[in-house]
Design a protein that fits this description.
By secondary structure, the protein is mainly beta. Helix content is 13%, strand content 44%.
């Protein structure tokens, strides 16, 4: 009853139509447009990240086979894709305005939705050591030469290759004890602008530790 009353009020404003059936068609089309506008949205599995950001996108409502889903990823040149869901890799830092247009079978746009995706530059990771070769026990002072791409580095993990690790020390000192060999060293960092991402660098056979000289002696009996 309320619906019919509302439609009659809308019909009184349809002066351009000369008959009631045309007015009703206008009202029903208008209500369909309003309904479709409020029933959809973009769902993104992530809205920000660093470096190459892979984003899964879909319409917030169940797929309708009568509709065409047109995606504009906000890149230049324009990249249009079609389908209820999409996966796209944003590789250049910046803010992208992703647009979803839902169209009916006649090609008319029923609704338009947008979602901002922010891509931050990744950190540049590097490290060094003051004495990468020696005999055990061998002490090495490591230096983190990493620089953040945007924001600050909020986490570090050093993996020294001999079974030992240390967290959140910028420039650690480590002693290789009772082991000889070539040890890889790994540094993992997290940047505050993309706390869900971990960036890693590994230098293979970076620390070379040898056994060194083994003390020994022989006692000989005195001679006459």
């Amino acid at each position: 009853m309320l619906f019919m009353t509302y439609c009659r009020k809308l019909c009184t404003k349809c002066r351009m139509y000369r008959n009631r059936s045309a007015s009703w068609m206008f009202v029903l089309s208008l209500l369909s447009l309003i309904s479709s506008k409020t029933d959809a949205q973009i769902v993104a599995d992530k809205t920000s990240g660093c470096g190459n950001v892979i984003v899964g996108l879909r319409d917030g409502q169940p797929q309708n086979p009568a509709y065409t889903y047109e995606w504009d990823m906000g890149v230049t040149p324009t990249s249009l894709r079609y389908g209820w869901s999409q996966s796209y890799t944003f590789s250049t830092p910046g803010t992208y305005n992703v647009i979803l247009r839902i169209k009916n079978s006649a090609g008319n746009i029923l609704s338009t939705w947008s979602q901002a995706i922010v891509v931050h530059p990744p950190p540049n990771i590097d490290f060094g050591a003051d004495d990468p070769s020696g005999c055990f026990p061998h002490k090495v002072n490591f230096t983190d030469n990493s620089t953040p791409g945007n924001g600050a580095i909020i986490f570090r993990r050093w993996v020294f290759g001999d079974g030992n690790t240390v967290d959140n020390v910028t420039n650690p000192t480590h002693v290789y004890r009772n082991l000889s060999g070539n040890f890889p060293v790994t540094l993992r960092v997290i940047q505050n602008s993309c706390p869900q991402d971990t960036f890693t660098i590994t230098k293979s056979a970076y620390i070379n530790v040898s056994q060194g000289v083994q003390p020994d002696f022989i006692v000989e009996p005195p001679t006459n």
